[in-house]
Request: fold
Amino acid sequence: MQSKWFLALPLTVLAAGACLTTTAAASQASAPVTAAVRPSALPPGYQLVTLPNANVPNFQRRTLYCPGSKKVLGGGAEARGNRAILVGSFPTDDGRGWIGIGRQDGYNDVGISVFAICAD
Reply:
């Protein structure tokens, strides 16, 4: 009896989402699209910075800092290798960079790449 309740709730949510999507698509079909990203919409000093892939011991942090006095707006990391797992991807405490941490099952090291979106 309890399994029917768990199945019914997700199906109800999916059905409601399908109705909203259909309604939104129908209303957008008649309205012209006017929003567009303009280069002037980017923050001053916008720069994408990357720390290329390098093998490091499992769970060792790889840290990428924004150049000069720029601050990090966002970022990410990628774990590369057979059975590689990204363990963490987060900003530095001072808000000037991004950190990536990973591990690789069955190996002592893992390839980690780090990316940061920086601006003035």
Notes: Helices lie at 2-30. The first strand starts at residue 47 and ends at 57. DSSP finds one helix and six strands in the chain.
